[in-house]
Amino acid sequence: MNFCPQCASPIAELLIDSEIRKGCPNTQCGFVLWNNPVPVVAMIVEVEGGVVMAHNVNWPKSFYSIITGFLEAGEDPEECARRETMEELNLHALETKLIGAYPFAQQNQVIIAYHVRAAGEIKLNHELDDYKIVPPAEIKPWPMGTGLALTDWLKQQGLSPKS
User: Mind telling me which GO cellular component terms the entry cites (predicted)?
Assistant: First the structure.
């Protein structure tokens, strides 16, 4: 962002609340670009046989992850987990349980993670092109983002996460 969306002044770096932030130098305007993190909901979708690990069409071929989606305006995070499970996998969420919230600074996101027990026939939407059903004991969490939620969930299941 180069110009203020409220008064069109050039954006500058300003000292606000002891932090350098981007904002409008026009004191009559006062616009600040807070750059708050985006809420993302992640689902560890468990079906008969294990956890659904999916491949997004934009990811490297070997990378599979749990299901994620953006929280819509006014939407409850748990309802988002149910909606995204249906939209991305065509599965009915039978039970949802909050795992936790996790910072993902690299993507400027806060991840709200749920364990979802689901049923139905998997049909991938246009964002996904493949999936695997992985037994929980075989899951290897990664050290950031949704991997932190997987680690916590595996521990809740009495499993030692593989490294």
Answer: cytosol
